[in-house]
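Sharing a chain and its predicted structure for anyone who wants a worked example. Both blocks are below, sequence first, tokens second.
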Amino acid sequence: MIGNPQLFVLVSLAVITLLIIWLAARFRKVLLPMQGMIISMFFGMSVSLTVGVLFGVAYHGNLFHSTMIAIGIGVLAGSLCGVWFGLLAILEGFMAGMMGGMMGAMLGAMINVEQSGMLIQLLLLMTVSTIFIILLLKTPRHATITTKRWLLKPVLLGLIVLAYAIGSDVFIW
């Protein structure tokens, strides 16, 4: 039931989760509590949607198992991301993980395998974009640009995400 494409997605989500938790811990002093809530909600929802579609397709006839796995992973990811921002961010990540897990598993059970590859790739890319949200929100409002060197970081990060998206096309279905 679980093959190499599914393992690629799960390992990618694990690495992204560790990276997001590290970024949240690193920038928790710079980000406002409301921004932390948004980050944990967005991340918990996108992870649980991705896992829900993945397991909804893998366990096509068993909606209960795919829903429980997606909810568990989404709740864990959203809550761990919100730990650095306070109790409300934890609750926001928890509830977004629950809701996304249910919706993703239902969506995965409704589509067939041929349709799921592109959807999982899109949801995985949405999950990776959480990195951009953290980096965008941590930038001060009144920051001034003194050199053109500032362009190097977003361009490099964009190229890495683009290479990941194109490379994942090889592994996903």
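Comments welcome. The helical segments are 4-26, 33-58, 63-82, 87-110, 113-128, 130-138, 152-171.
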